């Protein structure tokens, strides 16, 4: 095996000497046995060949970056090969116009920042180890940092990935475009700790450096006062770039080591930072100071110079360093709770310290409820070490009791495996394990991490099912009888009801409207037993898109799951059942001063479950991200009838695999979503949209490029071409000062070829909806709709190609310009359409037939990322998680099976 590995990477890039291997046995403050060998690949091809060899011999492999992980994620356990990514450290492309940087996994976070700084941009994630931590490691851990409250964690800032599976197969997920078809492999890789695949390239979202930054610090007599201040700031529509709390013990240690003038009797210090356009922050700072005063701050300092600002940050950065220097050893915990439960959790930590005679200090990412209680102790004292471990175990238990998680950003590794059994049920862990087996069937990628041994070593569970040779009528009759015995209500066999739920000219055998999650679980469990096929149904606004390769038996209509369970304004979250209609939910939010930032294109009133299953976000994704970023928690009934949940009310959560990303955009093919927790936002201080129009195509293109290059903080950037006119709709929202500044910047771009068509204040904050209602042609006029994901720089070529169809029939186009998600609606001769769409698929490979009326979606018409259905990695997930194809059987979008 070693000979073959050397044949791939070269003699010098395979280490086997004991002295060389010793350096790879440590992971910050944890250590384990040295690996058997260390291999240094230099490119994707070498990674692929190395994994093929290791897969053949069944040898475990761990991809390693800088080794800064805190939970033993890269520690060897037995015979193991380390795949050291240090030589894959190239920055391939800095693309300012398209807002990304493409890098290999061995590039450090700091190197990315340095590459972007001359252009005036940055990469948002900023873990404490950013000076050495690699991008591959940031993704594997889903790293966070102090800027997450405004800019999100790593998964919110990665556009696409190239990865290699354990068998050597190279997979491209999204690449440089922001939307994809099929399951979200990019999202799944985040926080997977190298157990799914090896990242070989990443396309990272980049953000314009703010023109101005303001930093202030407030001192509070209690932790409750500090946390209340955080909720008040965010509840009034201000989202600072950082909200950090330092507790009493950390303050004392800081003042003893490097006096910064903090009162020694202060219970909490809150560091606040806001950023934005120059000249727009003073009013925001004044409002924050007023809130701090209302919340009993005893002292407030606003940095007047960059030096003062750095001094304020010095206290946050060095507080724990000063604290841990007091004893020989320290251990840092990483739990997260809903932000409003922080005071309770911090008081519990005080009690744990007293109970076990431990000294514990904490710093908190207060804006997202993630905090790091740190114990200092003597690891040579066996009794004290035992007490420290007991204290950590209790912290995890209490975090779970408060609706939190065992790890917000550090990961599970080996250190928190026991905590996984506290947080998740056996069924939930088993589902995650099947995810692992789908992508790594030989279990060679970083074994012994994330999933506890009691799950990974158990035999595959067999579910009761009848013989597949029984007739369809018999199976249906048995299914109906058992539904009746189980007292499942809302079952409809009548022709009139069934006709209303027809898909692809096929009527269901019956329609079921379950009244509870328990009824859904029962009907699915019985469907698995009797091989009954189910299509989940909300309001039917997207269920007809694509094709179904096999007939389905049952429509599971979720209109009875229509409860808004909670709107938590203080925590800025809401929990709803999947059948809640979006319009109804938005109205409830608006009445309370909040919003869910989505504006799907479909007509009517889709359900929350429907838009999540389709990742139907709309054009507000430019500012707020997609539903993949907005969904914090899900409950789902899986193909074996088990009810599982993942996530909750936390912004940061890296406990286990990110099952949310799997189900958002899964189109009802893996399970039935029953409950959803989402991030909500205060209605902005000011919101409007401007529509510009031009009859000159080139002037239109020049204008949208000038807007992109102006670096505005737009909420939406919609485009439409209809009836020979070219429209641009720009949504702007936020603090009034920022909105006004951007309007002035836009005024500089208008010329005689591009006119301001209309400007509307948007008190209900649904920008873009009226625009699409006005300029998108009715569905009945279209014979095919093509959906493409593009880089911004590719828009002119795509538009020119689409508009050429005017010579053969009618065409209009519309979509989200900045995110590159464009639609072209065609009507004309069927053969002309098929030929033209085939050409589009060849020229723009990230395209597919999104909806058809008279044109069949031929699997050969369009290509998505060049993957044929037979080798698309998502099929492995479908086969493992729904082996009998119970849900939405053989559903395809534009020829791509999902």
Explained architecture:
Its cofactor is FAD. This is FAD-binding PCMH-type domain-containing protein. Residues 31-209, 504-683 form the FAD-binding PCMH-type domain. Belongs to the FAD-binding oxidoreductase/transferase type 4 family. InterPro entries: FAD-bd_oxidored_4_C, FAD-bd_PCMH, FAD-bd_PCMH-like_sf, FAD-bd_PCMH_sub2, FAD-linked_Oxase-like_C, FAD-linked_OxidoTrans_Type4, Oxid_FAD_bind_N, Vanillyl_alc_oxidase_C-sub2. 32% of the residues lie in helices and 24% in strands. The protein is built from 30 helices and 43 strands. The chain has four domains: 1-206, Uridine Diphospho-n-acetylenolpyruvylglucosamine Reductase, domain 3 (2-Layer Sandwich); 212-377, 3-Layer(aba) Sandwich (Vanillyl-alcohol Oxidase, Chain A, domain 3), CATH 3.40.462.40; 462-683, Uridine Diphospho-n-acetylenolpyruvylglucosamine Reductase, domain 3 (2-Layer Sandwich), CATH 3.30.465; 686-897, Alpha-Beta Plaits, CATH 3.30.70. The strands form ten sheets. Strands 14, 15, 16, 17, 18, 19, 20 and 21 form an eight-stranded antiparallel beta sheet that branches. It has an eight-stranded antiparallel beta sheet with strand order 37-34-36-35-39-40-38-41, with helices on both faces. The chain has a five-stranded antiparallel beta sheet with strand order 7-8-12-10-11. Residues 851-871 have low confidence and may be disordered. By secondary structure, the chain is an alpha+beta fold. Helix 8 packs antiparallel against helix 10, helix 12 (342-355) packs antiparallel against helix 13 and helix 15 runs antiparallel to helix 30. A hairpin with a 4-residue loop joins strand 7 (91-95) and strand 8 (100-103). The radius of gyration is 27 Å and the shape is globular.
């Amino acid at each position: 095996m070693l000979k073959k590995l050397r044949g791939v990477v070269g003699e010098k890039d395979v280490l086997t000497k004991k002295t060389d291997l010793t350096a790879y046995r440590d992971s910050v403050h944890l250590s384990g046995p040295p690996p058997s060998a260390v291999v240094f690949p230099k490119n994707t091809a070498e990674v692929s060949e190395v994994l093929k060899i290791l897969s053949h011999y069944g040898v475990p492999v761990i991809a390693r970056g800088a080794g800064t992980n805190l939970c033993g994620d890269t520690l060897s356990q037995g015979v193991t090969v380390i795949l050291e990514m240090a030589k894959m450290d190239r920055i391939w492309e800095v693309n300012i116009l398209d807002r990304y940087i493409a890098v290999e996994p061995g590039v450090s976070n700091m190197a990315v920042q340095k590459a972007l700084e001359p252009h005036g941009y940055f990469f948002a994630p900023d873990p404490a180890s950013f000076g050495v931590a690699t991008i591959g490691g940031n993704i594997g851990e889903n790293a966070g940092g102090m800027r997450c409250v405004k800019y999100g964690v790593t998964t919110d800032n990665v556009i696409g990935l190239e990865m290699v599976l354990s068998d050597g197969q190279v997979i491209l997920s999204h690449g440089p475009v922001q939307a994809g078809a099929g399951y979200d492999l990019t999202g799944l890789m985040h926080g997977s700790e190298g157990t799914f695949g090896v990242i070989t390239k990443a396309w990272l979202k980049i953000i314009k450096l703010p023109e101005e930054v303001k930093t202030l610090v407030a001192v509070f007599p209690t932790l409750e006062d500090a946390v209340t201040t955080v909720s008040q700031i965010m509840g009034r529509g201000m989202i600072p770039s950082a909200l950090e709390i330092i507790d009493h013990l950390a303050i004392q240690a800081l003042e003893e080591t490097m006096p910064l003038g903090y009162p020694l009797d202060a219970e909490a210090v809150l560091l606040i930072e806001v950023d934005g356009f120059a000249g727009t922050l003073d009013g925001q700072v004044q409002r924050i100071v007023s809130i701090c005063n209302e919340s009993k701050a005893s002292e407030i300092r606003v940095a007047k110079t960059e030096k003062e600002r750095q001094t304020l940050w010095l206290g946050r950065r060095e507080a724990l360093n000063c604290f841990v220097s007091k004893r020989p050893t320290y251990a840092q915990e990483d739990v997260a709770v809903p932000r409003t439960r922080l005071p309770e959790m911090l008081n519990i930590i005080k009690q744990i310290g007293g109970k076990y005679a431990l000294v514990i200090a904490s710093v908190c990412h207060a804006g997202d409820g993630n905090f790091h209680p740190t114990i200092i102790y003597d690891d040579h004292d066996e009794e004290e070490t035992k007490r420290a471990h007991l204290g950590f175990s209790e912290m995890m238990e209490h975090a779970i009791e408060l609706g939190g998680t065992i790890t917000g950003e550090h990961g599970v590794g080996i250190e928190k495996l026991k905590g996984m059994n506290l947080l998740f049920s056996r069924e939930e862990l088993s589902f995650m394990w099947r995810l692992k087996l789908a992508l790594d069937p030989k279990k060679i990628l970083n074994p012994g991490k994330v999933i506890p041994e009691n799950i990974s070593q158990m035999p595959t569970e067999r579910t009761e099912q009848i013989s597949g040779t029984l007739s369809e009528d018999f199976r249906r009759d048995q299914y109906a009888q058992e539904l009746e015995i189980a007292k499942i209500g809302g079952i409809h066999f009548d022709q009139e009801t069934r006709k209303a739920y027809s898909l692809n000219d096929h009527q269901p055998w019956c329609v079921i409207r379950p009244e509870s999650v328990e009824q859904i679980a029962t009907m699915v469990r019985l469907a698995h037993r009797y091989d009954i096929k189910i299509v989940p149904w909300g309001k039917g606004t997207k269920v007809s898109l694509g094709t179904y390769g096999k007939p389905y038996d049952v429509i599971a209509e979720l209109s009875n799951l229509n409860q808004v369970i909670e709107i938590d304004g203080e925590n800025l979250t809401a929990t709803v059942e999947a059948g809640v209609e979006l319009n109804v939910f938005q109205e409830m939010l608006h009445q309370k001063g909040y919003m869910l930032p989505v504006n799907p294109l479909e007509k009517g009133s889709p359900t929350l479950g429907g838009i999540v299953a389709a990742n139907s976000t709309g054009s507000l994704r430019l500012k707020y991200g997609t539903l993949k970023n907005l969904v914090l928690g899900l409950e789902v009934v899986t193909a074996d009838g088990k009810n599982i949940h993942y996530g909750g009310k936390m912004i940061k959560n890296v406990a286990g695999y990110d099952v949310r990303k799997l189900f958002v955009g899964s189109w009802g093919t893996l399970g039935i979503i029953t409950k959803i927790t989402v991030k909500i936002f205060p209605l902005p201080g000011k919101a409007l949209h401007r529509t510009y129009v031009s009859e000159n195509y080139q002037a239109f293109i020049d204008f949208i490029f000038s807007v992109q290059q102006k670096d505005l903080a737009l909420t939406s950037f919609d485009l439409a071409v209809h009836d020979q006119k070219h429209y641009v709709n720009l949504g702007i929202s936020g603090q009034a000062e920022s909105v006004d500044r951007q309007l002035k910047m836009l005024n500089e771009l208008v010329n005689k070829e591009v006119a301001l068509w209309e400007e509307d204040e948007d008190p209900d904050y649904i920008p873009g909806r009226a625009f699409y209602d006005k300029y998108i042609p009715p569905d009945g006029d279209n014979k095919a709709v093509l959906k493409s994901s593009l880089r911004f720089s590719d828009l002119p070529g795509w538009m020119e190609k689409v508009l050429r169809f005017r010579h053969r029939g009618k065409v209009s186009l519309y979509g989200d310009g900045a995110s590159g998600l464009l639609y072209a609606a065609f009507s004309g001769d069927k053969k002309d359409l098929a030929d033209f769409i085939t050409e589009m698929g060849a020229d723009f490979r990230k395209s597919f037939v999104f909806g058809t009326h008279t044109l069949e979606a031929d699997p050969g018409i369009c290509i998505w990322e060049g993957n044929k259905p037979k080798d698309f990695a998502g099929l492995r997930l479908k086969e493992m998680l729904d082996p009998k194809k119970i849900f939405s059987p053989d559903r395809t979008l534009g020829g791509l099976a999902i």
